Amino acid sequence: MIRSPRLAQSVAAVTAGAGWTWLSQQPPSRTEPWLRRNYRDREVSLLLGPAVAAGTVAGIAAAVPGPRRGPLVAVTTAAVVGGYDDRYGDSHARGLGGHFRALSQGQVTTGMVKLVSIVSAAALASRMHRKAPVDVALGTILIAGSANLVNLFDLRPGRAAKVSLLAASVLRRTGDRPARCAAAVAAGAALAALPLDVREQAMLGDCGAGTLGAALGTSLAMRKSRLTRLIAATGVVGLTLASERVSFSSVIDSHPVLRRLDELGRPGPGEPSRPGGRPAPA
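Below the sequence we write its predicted structure tokens.
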């Protein structure tokens, strides 16, 4: 089997779509704990996240050439701890600063558990790929930082999926085949999620957004050029620090073009969504 970006994207998209179909048809006793209210107080399901995670893991396992243990460690950890945070998370601590402040007061938040887990997995995955300390550090920043960044965009319907799809479309055109395939996996999973996400039928949550970000970070970490990885890591760190002071939503809302792209595909104020992603009655 020839592993290619096209195959990687197809496997991820098909698996994510099938995963959502199966998860959304489970009995209410299993799906209702995953229902949440979004920013417009509409009920949506967080089960899209596990479906996207399944697609991402399947895409990497089936279609990314070369050693796959590192990428699988990174995306699987992001999926598991993201799902844990979605299901049991406490929302009073926001941003990296909020979680560190809570820790300084003796409280370990689910967000802190997620942060430590993803950073550790990113470091391990990077160490599996390259041995030089500087390369391990860059890979850790790219994988863990990208997982966090995509999650920061998951504040409006479809936003994180759109950002992931755009970034993946760029990354899959550059680099060698393993890096392009990893980006294509993120593209396929995001493409499968976008219609449900943007129509407010479901949301990625920490599980889906973190997994997509980890896949994008893995694609960046696979680049052969250390300079390219350094520039990308600088951008990831810069955006992360900026997010502690500036709201991405405020920036997007204040720019007409960005606002139009951000709102593209969403239901209007009076248009009903389908609660929890369940089919509307005929």
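Confidence is low (pLDDT under 50) at residues 275-282.
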